[in-house]
C-alpha cells in the first residue's frame, strides 16, 4: 500500500499541471514586434508575468494596440473570452527601458533578424542581468555561437525558435549552440513545457529544422507565380487541398512578413550557397515596395483591417 502511494505521489509530482513555476518566474522580452507580442501573450496565458520592452513609447503604444486587436479577433472567433484577454494583458508589463531586468532568470531577445542589432542587445543585457540569468535568442538563421561570444556567460545562451503565430503553433525549436550547458538546455525545455509548447531539441545550423524546410517551398511557390503557371490564389488552393496545409505557401509568407522571409533566404543563401535558397525576384520587388504581407495590408494578397484576404 505504501509503495502504491509513493507511485501515485510521483505521478502527481511530475504531471504537467504540477510543473514548478518557481524555477523561472521573472521573464523579460526585448522587442515588442509581432514575435515579441506573440511570445509575451503565450507566456502570460500560462499564468506567468512578463516584461515586454521596446525602444520607445511610440513603438510600445503601437505594440499594445496590435496585440489588443489580435486578441479581439480571437474573441470574435470564440477562441478567447474577454476575461481571458484582460487576465493575459494584466500579466504583461510594458517597458521602454531595461531598468527592471536585474531580477530576471530568463530574458528573450526578439528583435529584428540582424546580427549586429542582436549582438548590441546581448551586450547590454550582459552588463545588467544577474549572473545566473539565461539569455534566449529567437533567431531563425543567425549563429548563436557567434552571438554568445559577446557575453560573459556563453553557457547560458540558447535559442528558442518560435513560429508565427506564436500562441497557436504548438512546437518550439530549442537550439543549442557550441557552449550551451546541459543545465541550460533542461531549464529551457522545462520552461517551454510550462508555457504549453512541445520542445524539439536541435543543434545549431542555419535554418534549424522548420525554417530550412519551409523556405524552399515558399521560394518555389513564388517562382511558380512569377512564371505565370497559376495565380497566387490557385497556387495556395492547390497546396492546401493537395497536402492538407492550413494555409498556402504564399499566404503563409504574407503571415510571416515578407521582409523576414527575405532575410531568412539571404542568410541561408549566403551561408549554405545552395540555389534553392536564392530569393525569387518577385519577393525582392514586394519588399522594395514595402508590401510586406499582412502587417502592411498587402503582399501577395491584399488584407482588410482584420487580416482577412480581400477577394
Characterization of this structure:
- Helix 8 (210-226) packs across helix 10 (249-256).
- This protein has an eight-stranded mixed sheet, sandwiched between helices.
- Strand 5, helix 6 (144-148) and strand 6 (157-162) form a beta-alpha-beta unit.
- With 311 residues, it is α/β, with parallel strands linked by helices.
- The protein contains twelve helices and eight strands.
- The relative contact order is 0.09.
- It has helices at residues 2-13, 34-45, 57-76, 82-90, 115-128, 144-148, 182-194, 210-226, 232-243, 249-256, 258-272, 281-288, and strands at 27-30, 50-53, 92-95, 106-109, 134-137, 157-162, 171-176, 198-203.
What order do the helices and strands come in, and which of them pair?
Elements: H1 2-13, E1 27-30, H2 34-45, E2 50-53, H3 57-76, H4 82-90, E3 92-95, E4 106-109, H5 115-128, E5 134-137, H6 144-148, E6 157-162, E7 171-176, H7 182-194, E8 198-203, H8 210-226, H9 232-243, H10 249-256, H11 258-272, H12 281-288
Parallel strand pairs: 1-2, 1-4, 2-3, 4-5, 5-6, 7-8
Antiparallel strand pairs: 6-7
Helix pairs in contact: 2-3, 8-10
Overall mean pLDDT: 90
Whole-number radius of gyration?
A: 20 Å
Cα distance spanning the termini? 66 Å
Strand order within the widest sheet? 3-2-1-4-5-6-7-8
Low confidence ranges: 1-22
Q: Strand-and-helix sequence, N→C?
A: HEHEHHEEHEHEEHEHHHHH
- The global form is globular
Amino acid at each position: 500500500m505504501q509503495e502504491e502511494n509513493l507511485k501515485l505521489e510521483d505521478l502527481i509530482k511530475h504531471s504537467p499541471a504540477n510543473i514548478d513555476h518557481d524555477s523561472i518566474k521573472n521573464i523579460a522580452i526585448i522587442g515588442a514586434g509581432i514575435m515579441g507580442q506573440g511570445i509575451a501573450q503565450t507566456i502570460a496565458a500560462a499564468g506567468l508575468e512578463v516584461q515586454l520592452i521596446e525602444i520607445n513609447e511610440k513603438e510600445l503604444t503601437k505594440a499594445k494596440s496590435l496585440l489588443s486587436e489580435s486578441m479581439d479577433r480571437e474573441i470574435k472567433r470564440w477562441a478567447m473570452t474577454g476575461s481571458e484577454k484582460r487576465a493575459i494583458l494584466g500579466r504583461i508589463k510594458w517597458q521602454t527601458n531595461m531598468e527592471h531586468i536585474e531580477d530576471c532568470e530568463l530574458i528573450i531577445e526578439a528583435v529584428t533578424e540582424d546580427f549586429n542589432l542582436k549582438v548590441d542587445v546581448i551586450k547590454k543585457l550582459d552588463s545588467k542581468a544577474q549572473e545566473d540569468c539565461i539569455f534566449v535568442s529567437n533567431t531563425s538563421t543567425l549563429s548563436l555561437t557567434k552571438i554568445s561570444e559577446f557575453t560573459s556567460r556563453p553557457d547560458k545562451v540558447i535559442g528558442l525558435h518560435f513560429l508565427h503565430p506564436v500562441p497557436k503553433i504548438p512546437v518550439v525549436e530549442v537550439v543549442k549552440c557550441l557552449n550551451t550547458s546541459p543545465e541550460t538546455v533542461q531549464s529551457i525545455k522545462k520552461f517551454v513545457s510550462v508555457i504549453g509548447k512541445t520542445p524539439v531539441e536541435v543543434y545549431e545550423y542555419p535554418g534549424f529544422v522548420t525554417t530550412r524546410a519551409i523556405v524552399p517551398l515558399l521560394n518555389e511557390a513564388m517562382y511558380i507565380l512569377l512564371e505565370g503557371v497559376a495565380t497566387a490564389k490557385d497556387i495556395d488552393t492547390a497546396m492546401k487541398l493537395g497536402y492538407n496545409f492550413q494555409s498556402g505557401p504564399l499566404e503563409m509568407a504574407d503571415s510571416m512578413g515578407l521582409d523576414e522571409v527575405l532575410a531568412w533566404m539571404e542568410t541561408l543563401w549566403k551561408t549554405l550557397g545552395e540555389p534553392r535558397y536564392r530569393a525569387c525576384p518577385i519577393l525582392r520587388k514586394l519588399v522594395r515596395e514595402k508590401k510586406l504581407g499582412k502587417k502592411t495590408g498587402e503582399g501577395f494578397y491584399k488584407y482588410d483591417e482584420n487580416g482577412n484576404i480581400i477577394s
